[in-house]
Amino acid sequence: MEITWHGHSTWHVTVGETALLIDPFFDNPKTDLEPADIDTPEYVLLTHGHADHIADAGEFSDATLVATPELVSYCQDEFGFEDAVGGMGMNLGGTVECGDAFVTMVRADHTNGIMTESDASGGMPAGFVISDTKPTQAADEESTTFYNAGDTSLMTEMREVVGPYLEPDVAAVPIGDHFTMGPWQAGVAIDWLDVDYALPQHYDTFPPIEQDPAEFEREVKATGSDADVVIAEADEPFEL
Q1: pLDDT of residue 120 exceeding 80
Q2: Per-residue exposure over 124-148, b if at least 16 CB sit within 10 Å of its own CB, e if not
Q3: What is the pLDDT of residues 17-47, one digit of tens each?
Q4: Domain residues of the chain, as ranges?
Q5: For 114, phi and psi rounded to 5 degrees?
Q6: β-strand 64-66 against 197-201: which pairing, if any?
Q7: Which neighbouring-strand residues pair with 4?
Q8: Contact assessment for residue 187 and residue 222, using Cβ atoms and an 8 Å cutoff
């Protein structure tokens, strides 16, 4: 599995021969790329409907959309997406097979109104757990699993469900504060998740979420976690 951060909460994930793009938003100060620079992935995953997570989704409307049914419906109308997993999107707790990847949608504590003239609802906000094997109750030490927490606060589901049962190897968590977790809550989240690698996201895009990611690294260490904090350079692949 290879993951690439394109700034803010935008990730390109390759599992086997399958490419997935999460929350495409390239109008951020970390990346030099435009949507046209990205080969169209097989799947676009949207955690929720806020503009800084779906703004460039329409540039990839030939991909299969993975999101809540409410958000799928909105994106079909707004961006011309024709395909969605199962023809109707998915919802919290579900796992769908996306090419060589298995995608499980998990809860995120956030809001999800789409602020347009109609004030559409995007359903529940979500995070995604992406693995090269189907999750089961039997631990699989050979699997590789990436957890993107989406926009969220600290929540016990990370400790009680995502960490022990979905067993991510690496987690991308928001650290920007103000709209999501800040560094100290994100540090606790990494400890609860018991991952090998921790990557910060959703920071430095706008003035309210400016953060020094070194503070996140300090907070992770303060919990006693053994996770390696990787402060990713935008557009540089990270191999798992």
Answers
A1: no
A2: bbbbbbbbbeebeeeeeeebebbbb
A3: 999 999 999 999 999 999 999 999 999 999 9
A4: 2-239
A5: -100, 110
A6: unpaired
A7: 12, 237
A8: yes
